[in-house]
Amino acid sequence: MIWQLISESYAFLKGFLRNREGIFWLVVFPIVFLVIMVMVFASEGGVSYDVGIVGNSSIISEIFSNISYINSYYVKSEEILYDMVRNGSLDAGLILNLDEEVGISGEVKIVYISNLTSSETAARMVSSIIGALEDEVRRQAYDFAESYVPRQFHGFLKLISDPIEVQYEGITPEIYGTPGGLKLFYVISMIGVQVLFIGMFNGVLNILEKKRSGVLKVVVSSPIDGYVILMADTLGAIVATLISGVAILVAGFFIGADYTALTLDKILLILSLTIVSLLFMTGLGLILSTLPKTYEGAQALANMVAFPLMFVGGIVVPEFLLPDYIRTFAEFFPVSRLISTMRDILIFNIPMSSVYFDILYGLSATLIVFIIGAYVYRRLLLKTIEHPI
Amino acid sequence: MAILEARELVKIYPGGVKAVDGISLVFERGIYSIMGPNGSGKSTTLSMCSGVLKPTKGRVYVLGLDLWGKDWIEARRHIGFAPQDMPFNPKLSALDNLIWFGLLRNMSLMECRTSAKKLLMSVDLYESRNMLVGKLSGGMRRRLTIASALIHNPDVIILDEPGSGLDPKAKEDLWMYIQELVEDRTLIFSSHDAREVERFSKWTYIFHRGRVVAEGEPRKLIEEYVKHPYISVWFAKDVIPPEINGSRPLVFGSIAWYSLEDVDLPDVISYLRENKMPFKRIEIIEPSLNEVFIRLTGERLME
């Protein structure tokens, strides 16, 4: 049986370098997609906002010029400012009416487009900057007044100027907060995408592909059980996925993904989780293979299932960006859980003991789905022998 | 014990089409043929005998093993099947395709390589072993198909229309390779070419509409059903072939056969001219399985 099991892997590897279509989908496409995703979502520059300012303030100018994520522009009039915010040329606007003779005091108005996330975000950033400036002004006023006010009144002075001193300490995982970490996030995303498509296509198109190429007769006339044929095909798909995965990992290295947390045991775990995910998708594809009657119909079905899963499964889009009702699906979908586990281990450095349940969940679901899929496959194969499609 | 035996095979396709209706066949060592026109059930029968298509009823035994029963895996080890459409993995070379076939039969990689190279040499494809299958000519692909059926050294080789689509020279060459490779195995092939069947098979089953209408050694069948040459006249449409000098013809549509024992060619020609009976063609036909088929079924065996 061992040689029968490797038959499909042999055929795949031998034909791989001659198969331009295979090389494109397994190697070229995922690398190109990865580069595009990284350029769009994980570029070094990060996101910045354009803020227009009406009115003069040397302090405000100096503050904003030192903030990398805000591009400030001086605008001649309030009317022009409103127009520019309305038409989207600016994310938010700041109207200053300040007196800088003694410290800084006066009025500030922040203009933004309500219900537009980017504009509201820009407005909040500006607001927090102004708020921080206010706090600093009060502290300076307190320091100045402290020397003139009797000691017994210092408490009241503090109550007026700075009643609650708030300190912020942002804690982010070492890798995720960096561009390299984000790129690693998308490297894993791309591996997930390949798992979705290779598994689904391998499952849905298995028998129809053999029928289309005419080799189905050769296979069923061979002394080989249907389950062994399936295992051979699945092993071939695993080989294809591993080739694609290695290509993606290598590409990730060149685009600057942070692999510092990548140890040998983690690599082996990632490979294992990739294989388990592939088996789940193959099983799901096998179950769905009863639906299409033609090869073209099967291709359409495979694409129709795999493509949306890239997004709603939290594979390409981070889960925290998904709406609640979709995030619930991602939390239950086994492949999403397994991909998240890979990210937890590699990017967030979550200890293994914390992900045992997720791995167990993914393994159990895969076992059930693959066994059902294998049963469905064998029935379909027997039906093909009785009544050729 | 027969090498391969098919008992009361029936195949009914969806829609109620009965392609094979109670066929029983026995094959020993040697070259056997199944002859019949398109749609007579030849390919269906061979598919059932090779494990590709499950019979609706009936059984197939290979060296006593039930091909569709609990011994089905062991039974398939003894069969090498080469379908008519020559299926190969288009992304692989000739050599790699044969190796893949061998791996499917659980041969080790080393055994596959050795056997494949030997077979490619036998069918004169060794020089083209690294060519992609898609780049091989029709004749070369057909030879490769034969080799693929032999990769695991089976006892029974089943070829579905091996000469189909080949010109006479290529067909002749192909049969040269087949006869060398068969050795003392059992070879079963299907064909609608009467000459091919007469030349190469020691026993033939004649199929018509899913049934066996005759079986035997080709020469003996000819002697039994078409004892002597005939004068074949192709009449124009709507002409009823007449009796000529007391010789009543065998009529098949607009074709009439006059026995040369009863009448000779000049008689026929002069009768037809005197009576102004239009005809398209007149020829003397030597007895062949083609004529046997016409005698048995009233239809022509398409060539």
Care to describe what's here?
The complex is a heterodimer of chains A (389) and B (303). Chain A has 389 residues and is an alpha/beta fold. Chain A is built from 15 helices and 4 strands. Chain A has a 4-stranded mixed beta sheet, sandwiched between helices. In chain A, helix 2 runs antiparallel to helix 7, helix 2 crosses helix 10 and helix 10 crosses helix 11 (264-288). The longest helix of chain A has 31 residues, at 356-386. The mean pLDDT of chain A is 85. Chain B has 2 domains: 4-223, Rossmann fold, CATH 3.40.50.300; 228-286. In chain B, a hairpin with a 3-residue loop joins strand 1 (4-13) and strand 2. The radius of gyration of chain B is 22 Å and the shape is elongated. Classes of the chains: A alpha/beta (389), B alpha/beta (303). The interface between A and B is medium-sized, with 31 and 39 residues.
Shape of chain A: elongated
How far the N terminus sits from the C terminus of chain B, by CA atoms, comes to: 35 Å
Q: Strand share of the residues of chain A?
A: 5-15%
Q: Give the ordered list of helices and strands of chain B.
A: EEEHEEHEHHHEHEHEEHEEEHEH
Mean pLDDT of chain B: 89
Structural class of chain A: alpha/beta
Category by helix and strand content of chain B: alpha/beta
Helical residue percent band of chain B: 25-40%
Number of strands of chain A: 4
Q: Could you name the ranges of chain B where pLDDT drops below 50 across 5 or more consecutive residues?
A: none
Helix content of chain A: 55-70%
User: What is the domain tally of chain B?
Assistant: 2
**Alpha carbon gap, first and last residue of chain A:** 28 Å
Lateral strand order in the biggest sheet of chain B: 6-7-8-3-9-10
- The CATH class designation of the largest domain in chain B is Alpha Beta
Number of strands of chain B: 14
Question: From the structure provided, what is the oligomeric state, counting identical versus distinct chains?
Answer: heterodimer
